[in-house]
Fold:
Amino acid sequence: MNASLKKIILFPFNMLYRISPKAALSLLYRLKCKSKLNWDNPGTYLEKLNWMKLYYRNELMPICADKYLAREYIEDRGFGEYLPRLLWSGFDPAEIPFDTLPQSFVIKSTTGSGNNIICKDKTELNKEKTVKKLKGWLKEKYLPCYGEWHYEKIKPRIIIEEYISDGKNFVPVDYKLFCFNGLDGGDVGCIAVDLGRYVDHRRNIYDADFKYLNYVSFNFKRDEEANIECPETYLEMRRIAHELAKPFPHVRVDFFVIGKRFYIGELTFFNGAGFDMITPHEYNVQMGEWIDLTQLL
Structure:
């Protein structure tokens, strides 16, 4: 959806959120998830995500949700070698040193979803249009009605990282490890494998042992023909995700795999802002059981 149109549609919800965050989240949940949110006894994964948006605060969350500051969190825990190389960062896109950048790179804003420019050949990059787009990204406002309070505390900036490619896909296969405090203090409960991002986005779901769950969908259509094998690096990825997740009731840790090497992508606390549909309902319930809210009370 166009960002400007989205702002217009959500304007009444943002106004309602200022008056009653609970009412705004309840209404959005009803519209997006087609059910009533049980605030008194949240049971499903989506219900618990929205409960945490309202009642849970952790000072590490704004740091880890910031794609720049998260690097420090990851490095402090001894996993800096798994980060893509940082080429540049700053608050003014006009200062980007395009001439000294390598031929290929990736430009990101440190907030927002999908704000990425993948440059495979900088001789074909329109620098003026790119700078204009980046300035627009930096002006994008946090949407209060989604309840993702931690984004409000992030000062947007631009980062440029090395371009990572497996030589086959425009974007490497993305492995999203969902970690839960109800599973050994932060272990993986399931994995979403994203294919064809920016082209024909598909998503397959696997259990913690990397068994394909052909009956489960997370918002995107499945790719029944995709033959995704468990990466050789999976156990190490799982260990790292477990360690990074320990301070939180739930976090999604993303990885890109290139052969026998992998890179940490980002940390996300509210997958799909807490509104992405999960089918079947029974799996939504199962995921909810993996989040122990009693530890937060």
Summary: The helical segments are 3-19, 21-33, 45-55, 60-65, 69-76, 127-139, 234-245, 281-289.
